[in-house]
């Protein structure tokens, strides 16, 4: 009798050996995913509790209720964990922007939705405190920092569509300028610990999508 192979049975379908391997790796993946999520949540909780602090690995591991070995299987260092926290937050923010923009068909409303979601990082006191803490702990790596290059690029891609529909002759470049401006203004409010108002939102939206000449007269 030959030794079993883990790939699917050549006659078709999943073999019992392959199914057993899938179950084992599936369990390991679920365990690893749970440990990583607990470490991310623990890091965020510690930063929320002390926004000006610098959580240590021993504190993060204790809060997450995982071992040191589990930490180092997932992350090479605390900076690696902080980068992952920032990346996770950026992806959540991008998903939120997409959902909000998808509710609208008017280009100005879509741009306004994007500005409102980003400005919430400074407008909501709890969110603002957490955002400042994440920025402090990830500012050494601009590529992974909250509001970093990749996030602005992704948001620019989203904004290019409504800007093109709104009459921009160069929507890609205008969208990149708009994305950078949105984050720059948000961070100004964030670090000044000021709350942006609805008027601040509208002012920036009007700058990004200026009224088209003759539109008011036509109405």
Question: Which keywords apply here?
Answer:
219 residues, mainly alpha, 73% helix, flat, disordered N terminus, disordered C terminus
SSE succession: HHHHHHHHHH
Q: Outline, from the CA principal axes? A: flat
Q: Mean pLDDT, nearest integer?
A: 84
The beta-strand count equals 0
Return residue spans where pLDDT drops below 50 for at least 5 consecutive residues. 1-8, 142-147, 215-219
Architecture overview:
This protein is mainly alpha-helical and 219 residues long. The protein is 73% helix and 0% strand. The protein has helices at 16-49, 57-64, 68-74, 78-102, 107-123, 125-138, 149-165, 171-192, 198-208, 215-218. The longest helix is centred in the N-terminal third of the chain and has 34 residues, at 16-49. It is flat. The model is unreliable at 1-8, 142-147 and 215-219 (pLDDT under 50).
Secondary-structure topology with pairs:
Blueprint: H1 16-49, H2 57-64, H3 68-74, H4 78-102, H5 107-123, H6 125-138, H7 149-165, H8 171-192, H9 198-208, H10 215-218
In short:
The chain is mostly helical and 219 residues long.
């Amino acid at each position: 009798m030959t030794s079993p192979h883990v790939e699917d049975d050549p006659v078709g379908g999943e073999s019992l050996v392959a199914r057993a391997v899938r179950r084992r790796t599936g369990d390991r993946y679920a365990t690893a995913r749970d440990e990583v999520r607990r470490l991310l949540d623990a890091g965020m909780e510690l930063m929320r509790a002390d926004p000006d602090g610098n959580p240590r690995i021993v504190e993060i591991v204790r809060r997450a209720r995982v071992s040191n070995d589990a930490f180092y299987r997932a992350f090479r260092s605390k900076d690696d964990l902080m980068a992952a926290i920032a990346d996770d937050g950026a992806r959540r923010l991008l998903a939120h922007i997409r959902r909000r923009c998808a509710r609208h068909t008017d280009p100005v409303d879509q741009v306004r939705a994007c500005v409102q979601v980003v400005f919430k990082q400074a407008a909501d006191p709890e969110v603002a405190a957490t955002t400042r803490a994440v920025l402090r702990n990830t500012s050494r790596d601009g590529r992974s920092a909250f509001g970093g290059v990749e996030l602005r690029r992704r948001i620019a891609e989203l904004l290019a569509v409504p800007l093109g529909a709104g009459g921009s002759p160069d929507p890609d470049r205008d969208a990149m300028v708009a994305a950078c401006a949105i984050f720059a203004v948000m961070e100004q409010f964030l670090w000044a610990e000021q709350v942006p108002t609805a008027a601040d939102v509208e002012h920036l939206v009007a700058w990004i999508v200026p009224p088209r000449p003759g539109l008011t007269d036509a109405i």
